[in-house]
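// run 5 | inverse folding | seed 20
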């Protein structure tokens, strides 16, 4: 038996920090919360064994400050760091610094983060591993003329993407040569602002794409398994709003082929930890590698519910050297997750920070709420607007949708606008109920007015 961690510092905030604290406590591991001055009253601070304030509200001066986080590691004598998702979770330099100081980074090796973080390198790695990729040579484009030439070779429509991209930033669909220059300029400017890198590459645009991802885990002994799929196709401007498993578009044959492709992707780099291999799937069920996220995902509870597994626990066990004992897993029921954000869905999803005056989360059989907020908590304008994840589980998709409708109707959050009304509207839409949607579907719908 590998030696377990004694104390984990959680380099994150909010619901994911609280989620990690709960599992660590069940494993007998002490935890350290870090927090900014804006998060002083957050539940992750209250429930950790220790808490260290690392700076003001600005992320750059707190949750993104590697020196301050490493100082917190040192003064609390933590022997491992869990990065959660977002912030520094896919920062190879942070992982490398942890390793240099003898602190275990609960995630992949720095070289894996770099390899999968650069979209061109990742695509080249997948081609060598014989994982299907979207047509396009994947090279860094020299300039707009180079892009125009490659677009003519591939054929419109095309998608130009930031090589350092993520979260839908630095991406533009271009339908013709006439619109290429403007799309190129705006994508590069957005990429430069978001990532400090305006390098672009190009792929063929996949028609009627579904966004389906495969959850994988790799141990330190060369074994990689998959834990089936999640369908993340309900999106707004490339931002996921709803995730579910199994996908209503999935077949047994497609699941087998996509699962094996995801395992190949992990084995190609000898991957360690939990990760997600994301694919675009066209109307004819051809699938293409899109990217690999080398961290725990926001939507990981969907997998946990249909497979009855604690992914954070598995992530920690792999990090201290345990061998994976399981084989590939397949869903035993149906789960749906709705992201509850502090946003006004009827006003272009405008952020709605402020103080929550009343809070009552849904309960009942097959209902799970992951959140860090409560009545009296103030939603800060400095961070991501997600305040809760509502997850339901039922034997069938139809029953899961019915359960989600009931749970949404019971979810009371007053004082700020939230996306609960949007999800209530979505659950009633025939296309959604029939599983007849792709990543562009929501953009074609007319949302209700207030």
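// decoded
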């Amino acid at each position: 038996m590998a030696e377990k961690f004694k104390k984990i510092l959680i380099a994150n905030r909010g619901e994911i920090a609280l989620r990690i604290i709960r599992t660590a406590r069940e494993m007998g591991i002490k935890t350290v919360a870090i927090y900014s001055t804006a998060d002083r009253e957050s539940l992750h601070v209250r429930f950790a064994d220790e808490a260290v304030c690392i700076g003001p509200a600005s992320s750059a001066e707190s949750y993104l400050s590697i020196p301050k986080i490493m100082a917190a590691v040192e003064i609390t004598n933590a022997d491992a760091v869990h990065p959660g998702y977002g912030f520094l979770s896919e920062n190879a330099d942070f992982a490398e610094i942890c390793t240099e100081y003898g602190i275990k980074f609960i995630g992949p090796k720095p070289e894996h983060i770099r390899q999968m973080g650069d979209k061109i390198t990742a695509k080249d790695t997948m081609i060598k591993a014989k994982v299907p990729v979207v047509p396009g040579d994947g090279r860094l484009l020299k300039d707009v003329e180079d892009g125009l030439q490659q677009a003519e070779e591939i054929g419109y429509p095309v998608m130009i993407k930031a090589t350092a991209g993520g979260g839908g930033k630095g991406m533009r669909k271009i339908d013709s040569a006439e619109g290429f220059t403007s799309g190129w300029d705006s994508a590069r400017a957005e990429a430069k602002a978001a990532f400090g890198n305006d390098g672009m590459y190009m792929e063929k645009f996949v028609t009627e794409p579904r966004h389906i991802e495969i959850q994988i885990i790799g141990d330190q002994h060369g074994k990689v398994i998959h834990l089936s799929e999640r369908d993340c196709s309900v999106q707004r401007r490339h931002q996921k709003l709803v995730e579910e498993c199994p996908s209503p578009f999935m077949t047994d044959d497609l699941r087998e082929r996509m699962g094996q492709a995801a395992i190949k992707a992990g084995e190609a780099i000898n991957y360690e930890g939990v990760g997600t291999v994301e694919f675009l799937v066209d109307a004819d069920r051809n699938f293409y590698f899109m990217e690999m996220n080398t961290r725990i995902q926001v939507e990981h509870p969907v997998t946990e519910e249909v497979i009855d597994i604690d992914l954070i626990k598995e992530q920690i066990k792999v990090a201290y050297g345990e061998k994976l004992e399981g084989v590939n897993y397949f869903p035993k029921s149906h789960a749906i997750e709705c992201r509850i954000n502090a946003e006004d869905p009827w006003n272009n999803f405008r952020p709605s920070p402020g103080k929550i005056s009343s809070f009552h989360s849904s309960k009942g059989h097959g209902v799970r709420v992951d959140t860090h907020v409560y009545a009296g908590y103030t939603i800060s304008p400095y961070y991501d607007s997600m305040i809760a994840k509502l997850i339901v589980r039922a034997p069938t998709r139809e029953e899961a949708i019915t359960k989600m409708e009931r749970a949404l109707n019971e979810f009371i959050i007053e004082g700020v606008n939230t996306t609960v009304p949007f999800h209530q509207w979505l659950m009633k839409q025939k296309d959604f109920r029939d599983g007849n949607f792709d990543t562009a579907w929501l953009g074609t719908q007319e949302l209700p007015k207030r």
